[in-house]
Amino acid sequence: MTRQRWASKATFVMAAVGSAVGLGNVWRFPYLAGKYGGGAFLVPYVLALFLVGAPLLILEIAVGQQMQQGAIGAYRRLHPSFAGLGVFSSISALVVVSYYAVVMAWCLIYFVNSVQVPWATGAKTYFFEDVLQVSDRISDLGGINWPILGALIVIWIAIYFCIWQGTQSVEKVLLLSVPIPVILLAILLLRAVTLSGFLEGWKLYLNPVWGALQDPTVWNAAFSQIFYSFSLAFGTMIAYGSYKNEQDDVTKSAWITAGLDVAISLFAGFVVFAVLGYMATQTQTPITELAASGPGLAFVVFPEALSLMPLPWLFSGLFFVMLLSLGIDSAFSLVETINAVLLDRQSGQHQIAKVAFGVCFVGLLAGVIYTTRAGLYFLDIADHFVTSYNSMLVGIAEALLVGWVYGAEKLRRYVNETSDWSLGKGWNLAIKYVVPAALVMILAAQFSVDLRQPYEGYPGWALGLGWAIAILPFSYFLGSVLWERRTQRSRPYSS
Fold first, then answer.
1. Is the CB of residue 292 less than 8 Å from the CB of residue 218?
2. Are 211 and 47 in contact (CB under 8 A)?
């Protein structure tokens, strides 16, 4: 079949930005900045952008564009032994989107209920008891939470109709889903700066605490945030790159995508800390305590802060529309990752809708476990292991594949032949040495922590499920490499 194509270079950039900019830009980046030194956090964050984020983003877009295949086919064309790496990244993408869609289902429930602002009387109680109905422990499934399952079905229907015609339907969605979050963030910022205490929030956000840079955890957090924020190691940018013309610009597209992603994160920080500053003055709670609430920032702290504003129903509704519009692009981009590798084996444009339906249905089924009363625990475990291990391992493997097996210089020449902005040989060094070294250090640091103490105190059987998410697809990848090498050695004698 004729490969799908983006309508223009600008459309690709919108798609890449939509994939990269997600829920983590609104809650994870501000949370990390508040926790790890305020303005000082920007130092390792910017270094991570130049040393790891941008080089890998260029690599993935270039590989997809040159090989004109999804992750499995693209890695195979780089070297036949590495097709299993595409399977590894695709499985990881499926795991992520299965629980990411559940988080979007929570957002949908909040949006529907924003007219009444039911969390005004107790945001924490509303989230954990009314919405999640969370059980006391992970072993107590407690049955299906039907409102969440219903919302999840709606989310998956929305995802399907975003991608059911491939790039044609995606392009129509992007025209709304990419600008809307920025517009709504701007509206929330304009409202926040009219409230008392917003400057105190900005002071925490911007004032550098230089001593924080002595903590290795800060550097790990900064490099991890850049890595996750750019949708790296899940095959997404490879799939999106494969829908570009083989002679399209690579470097400029990658840098524009990276720059917009970082800019939106920084902008979101101003919005979040302005609102937190206001909440701190109203509740007499230290801003540092509010900012360090992690994922609860989106579903507990921020909703409570919005409930304290005049017209809370309006700004709560705008906030959750923003989260939904941020999340939908990231969600369907992960599905497109899987669609691309499946469609590489199909023929005929009519297969797109069938493949999309099948992947969405499997994603829905995989997400049912997260709609139980113990779903939050399973979601926490899956997220921890897939982001701490799967993505790091794929990132290391693809850097080694391009840097040492295929040849970084070979890919760099291709990129420079197609791009207005030339890559220097420093990119080769980054791919061959800096990226693998940085990711190995992050991986080793996390592994050391998980060996010393069980993650969040979960029982062994539950953590075993988490380790299985990482170990089984990684083992398949290693096994496929060894099998292919063995097959290659035996071929000269088979005749």
1. no
2. no
Nearest to 447 by CA among 414, 474, 418: 474
Instruction: Tell whether the torsion through CA atoms of 321, 327, 329 and 331 is positive or negative.
Output: negative
Q: Per residue of the chain (495 residues), give pLDDT as tens.
A: 578 999 999 999 999 999 999 988 888 888 888 888 889 999 999 999 999 999 999 999 999 999 999 999 999 999 999 999 999 999 999 999 999 999 999 999 999 999 999 999 999 999 999 999 999 999 999 999 999 999 999 999 999 999 999 999 999 999 999 999 999 999 999 999 998 999 999 998 999 999 999 988 889 888 888 988 898 999 999 999 999 999 999 999 999 999 999 999 999 999 999 999 999 888 888 877 777 666 678 899 889 999 998 899 999 999 999 999 999 999 999 999 999 999 998 755 578 999 999 999 999 999 999 999 999 999 999 999 999 999 999 999 999 999 999 999 999 999 999 999 999 999 999 999 999 999 999 999 899 999 999 999 999 999 999 999 999 999 999 999 999 888 877 765 443
Q: Let me know the angle formed at the C-alpha of 62 by 59 and 66, rounded to the nearest 5 degrees.
A: 140
CA distance 175 to 178: 6
Which of 68, 445, 24 has its CA nearest to residue 247? 68
Question: How many CB atoms lie under 10 A from the CB of residue 417?
Answer: 11
Residue with tokens 């079949």: 1
Greatest CA separation found in the chain? 81
Residue 285, judged by CB atoms within 10 A of its CB (0-12, 13-18, 19+), counts as: middle
Helix axes 312-343, 83-113, angle to 10 degrees: 160
